[in-house]
Amino acid sequence: MLYAFLKPLAVAVMRLLFGLHGRGMEHVPSTGPVLLVANHTSVLDPPLVGGASPRQLSFLAKAELFEVPLFGGFLRRLGARPLRREGPDAGALRTALRVLRAGGALLVFPEGTRGEEGVLGPAKPGAGMLAVLGRAPVVPVYISGSGRAWPRGRKLPRPASVTVTFGPPLAVAAGGGARRKDDYEAVTRDMMAAIASLRDSEPMKKQSSSRRVGVGGAQTSPKYMDGRDG
Reduced to 3 states, what is the DSSP secondary structure of residue 220? Predict the structure, then answer.
């Protein structure tokens, strides 16, 4: 499969350019459905999370990308599915639910668009709806450094240190009844709070387990094992 073939090459490039490190990969369930929710500051975010994740991911990308000749087909072969951002997209929701119900791992960005490095923007309730209806564990993810590596408005990426941190799964109760929208919004707030907690714990990463993402899998980074940083 194209994803499995390209991942080692992509990880090697991301390690070279961005020193890609992963933390908390053990929080990603090895099997079964899982919804990964991450902050979003760069077009690099999907491959960075995919490179650090121990599992193959599917993800939603803006529909305009799929209209680019050849590139749209390439994205589909990598597991991406189109998402229209002008209001609710029932088709994207159905596609995402099929991924989860088939036992897959799905990456979404609750903010819906790119923001500034270190700043979490308002989230859309669609991510909470997906979590409730999909009935899958939700793993929060914080990407640090991608907004410096390739911020919005810059034509080309630049070298920067990037760390992808996976947090403990969140338990999401099944919603229902007349207040379903409130349920979705509450779950989305919980997601963003968990992502914010990972962001705020970044200064503690020298005391936490960190792994350099290797071509053949994650590797423990010696500089974090003995407390050195740099």
Answer: strand
**Maximum C-alpha span of the chain:** 54
Distance CA(29)–CA(139), nearest Å, equals: 9
- Spatial CA neighbour of 192 closest among 132, 72, 137, 110: 110
Is 106:34 a contact under the CB 8 Å cutoff? yes
Contacts of 211 (CB under 8 A, 6+ apart): 21, 22, 23, 25, 218, 219, 220, 221
Main-chain dihedrals φ then ψ at residue 99, nearest 5 degrees? -60, -45
- Give 69 or 195, the one with higher predicted confidence: 195
- The pairing of strands 105-108 and 80-83 is unpaired
The one-letter code for the residue type at 142 is: Y
Pairwise CA distance, residues 144 & 199, whole Å = 8
Tell me the two tokens of residue 153: 């408005």
What is the distance of C-alpha 222 from the center of its chain? 26
Instruction: Tell me how far apart the alpha carbons of residues 59 and 62 are, in angstroms, rounded to a whole number.
Output: 10
Its pTM stands at 0.81
What are 19-30's pLDDT values in tens digits?
A: 999 999 999 999
Q: What is the pLDDT of residues 129-141, one digit of tens each?
A: 999 999 899 999 9
CA nearest to 134, candidates 110, 103, 112: 103
Structural domains in the chain, sorted by start: 2-225 (3.40.1130.10)
